[in-house]
Specification:
Number of helices: 8
Order of helices and strands: HHHHHHHH
Structural class: mainly alpha
Shape: elongated
Mean pLDDT: 93
Helix content: 55-70%
Low-confidence stretches: none
Distance between the termini: 19 Å
Length: 212
């Protein structure tokens, strides 16, 4: 524990680190606001459902626990991870913000309606700001864990944990008919592009997390 506290002391004592975290936090808040409005817009303008080679051959299953509670577990695990690896905080915040912004643009451009037999979800006062129904392309549940896998790629165990989480999320949204197969398939390619964009735009933060 003293080693972890020492890490935090070293990082948080640097003005550049503090400013970078603040910018990342504000950017993330802005991206979540954009994401909410894009989700509402995409859902209000959703068109008819389309056929899908996977969904047409697999009956819809209840995946409420994985889709909703799994997301909470993922966020909690990531928060704990950043406590142990504080130097990753700026880049994780900023790249996640870019992820939400690009996904918001993407779902605003595509107005395909959700599958009519999708698994019902229990919507509460919190997840209603993140779950909409018409925000389909591309799958955030699949993409965000994969983004973390790319960020923590040098840490083998974490890389595999995040890849596994991404695959589980991808399969679950298909089984629940919450996304079309193209939403899941394309999520990996879209996310890789977002990672590369973040790596270029936030070069200093990326280089910082690579330091020993």
């Amino acid at each position: 524990m003293e080693g972890i506290i020492g890490k935090h002391r070293v990082h948080w004592s640097q003005k550049t680190f503090l400013v970078s975290v603040l910018v990342g936090f504000l950017l993330l808040i802005a991206s979540l606001i954009i994401n909410y409005n894009a989700g509402v817009y995409a859902t209000e303008h959703a068109g008819p459902a389309v056929t899908d080679i996977v969904l047409d051959n697999v009956p819809a299953m209840n995946v409420d626990f994985i889709f909703l509670d799994g997301a909470i577990i993922f966020i909690s695990f990531l928060a704990l991870l950043l406590f142990f690896y504080p130097k990753y905080i700026p880049f994780v915040l900023k790249s996640t913000a870019i992820f939400f912004i690009i996904r918001s643009i993407s779902i605003s451009l595509t107005h395909i309606g959700p599958s009519p037999d999708q698994s019902p979800l229990i919507i509460n006062s919190i997840n209603k700001f993140f779950v909409f129904g018409g925000d389909l392309f591309f799958s955030g549940h699949t993409g965000l864990p994969f983004l973390m896998a790319l960020i923590f790629w040098d840490k083998k165990k974490l890389r595999y944990i995040f890849i596994l989480a991404s695959l589980i999320a991808g399969v679950s949204v298909l089984l629940g008919h919450l996304h079309y197969s193209i939403d899941v398939f394309a999520a990996f390619f879209m996310t890789y592009g977002i990672f590369r964009i973040s790596e270029y735009v936030f070069k200093n933060d990326y280089n910082y997390l690579k330091q020993d």
